[in-house]
Structures are given as structure tokens and as C-alpha cells.
Amino acid sequence: MWRDSIVEEVRRVREEHAAKFNYDLDAIYRDLKNQEKKSKRKIVSLSPRILKKANKEEVSILPTHV
Predict the structure, then answer these.
(1) For the chain, is the Cβ count within 10 Å smaller at the N or the C terminus?
(2) How many domains would you assign to the chain?
(3) Is the pTM of the predicted complex or chain greater than 0.70?
(4) Directed axis angle between helix 25-38 and helix 5-20, to 10°?
(5) Residue 65 resides in a domain
């Protein structure tokens, strides 16, 4: 079976990061948001995409809390 070294590295780093926070998703999220704040990169937030249903109602396909 073919193995992708980049995918393996990403999975290894993700596993190590999760282990540092005892796999607590809230703690992992807070850490990633803190890293994002400290980063010098520009952060872009996109508005939810809106789809039109057949009956012309607008429906958001993304959660509004994102």
C-alpha cells in the first residue's frame, strides 16, 4: 500500500498536539485559537454560503457559530 509522508507527518503532529491536552477538544480549540492570535498571518473569516431552495427560501449550509 502506498503511503504519503506528508499525510503521515500531519497525523503525527495532530496526535502529539491532542495528547498534550489529554484529547480535550475544548483545550485543543483554545490552544489553536491562541496560536492563531499570536500568529502574524492575516486571518480571514468567510460568511456562511447561502443556497436557494426550490421554494425560494434561503438556507445556510454552514453553522452560524463558525
Answers:
(1) N
(2) 1
(3) no
(4) 110
(5) no
